[in-house]
Write a structure and sequence with these properties.
A 3-stranded antiparallel sheet has the order 1-2-3, with no helix packed on it. It is built from 2 helices and 3 strands. It has one domain. By secondary structure, the chain is α+β, with helices and mostly antiparallel strands. A hairpin with a 3-residue loop joins strand 1 and strand 2. The chain starts with a strand and ends in a 13-residue tail after the last helix.
Length: 77
Amino acid sequence: PLRYDFRVLHVNYSQVAVEYTCLPGALNYTATITVLHRQPVALKELNAGLQRLNLTHVIPASLKNSIRLVNHTHCED
């Protein structure tokens, strides 16, 4: 069976949540960090966005170095 690791790194349900998911692989792993925030403004740059949301301390530097920023600002139900 396929297994993955999931952790909640930070949560404040009225404002923001940060989740970490890791899918182990034979040669390498795939990891994602999801920042769910209720501000309607898309983040243009990762570090500035994390500072704006007061999350610079939440994501470890070892993971932050390989993050690619993807914005989804128009979510459908």
